[in-house]
């Protein structure tokens, strides 16, 4: 068993987990999964994400998720980012596009504006981004191709694209985080992506809480087994590789216990 694995997205702040959290963390650590990234979504819960990050010894990303993009104008968003960054350097996320919450022109505009503004912020701060894309893979690729990722790169969480999209995302500077989609029948193209993407750009996420991985971060082993199978490696090798990849991306001091 490796001494550590890295879960690049676990919503350990989710109130639905509260009662089970100590057991989930214990199980994760016993399974050698010792690092995780928590991410903000709803701005009203950012401080709870920070608290949960500190309480669980996790890394934290904060940003305006596309679902809530319409709740902040650009000035409020800029001020919020400045405030969050004054407290600690972080990953900017989750940011991106989500077609489920872009059902009219106004919502689409708000999502694109929030995504572009936060990409620009991350570039100016030299911070990596954590990108969320649901039914929006071509649109995110297009927007990032035009705007550019920060030099520190980006994590594309919950990768759902095919191998050619994976290739393009990596060329743009993304590392791809593979989650429970790997375990589904409809996840064939995701498995195919995991098979071909260059090894230094693979990450794994439990997407806790997720029904397919009720064990939380410890479920990374199941994902690692699928990727290992596709690539002719072992699950411990995949866990070591993805841990190293995540640490390289986050090296720039995002651990919440470094907050002043
Ligand atoms: Zn997401």
Question: What key attributes describe this structure?
Answer:
single chain; 260 residues; alpha/beta; TIM Barrel; globular; binds zinc ion
CATH superfamily: Metal-dependent hydrolases
Rg from C-alpha positions? Answer: 17 Å
- Give the H and E element order: EHEHEHEHEHEHEHEHH
CATH class: Alpha Beta
Averaging pLDDT over every residue, what do you get? 93
Description:
- This protein has helices at 21-30, 46-56, 74-87, 105-125, 137-147, 163-172, 188-196, 220-231, 235-250, and strands at 5-7, 33-39, 59-62, 91-98, 129-134, 154-157, 174-178, 202-204.
- The chain is of the alpha/beta class.
- It has a single domain, classed as Metal-dependent hydrolases (TIM Barrel), CATH 3.20.20.
- The chain has an eight-stranded parallel sheet, with helices on both faces.
- Helix 5 (137-147) packs parallel to helix 6 (163-172), helix 6 packs across helix 7 (188-196) and helix 7 packs across helix 8.
- The longest helix has 21 residues, at 105-125.
- It is globular and about 45 Å long.
- The model is unreliable at 253-260 (pLDDT under 50).
- Bound molecules: zinc ion.
- Residues 94, 132, 157-158 line the site of zinc ion.
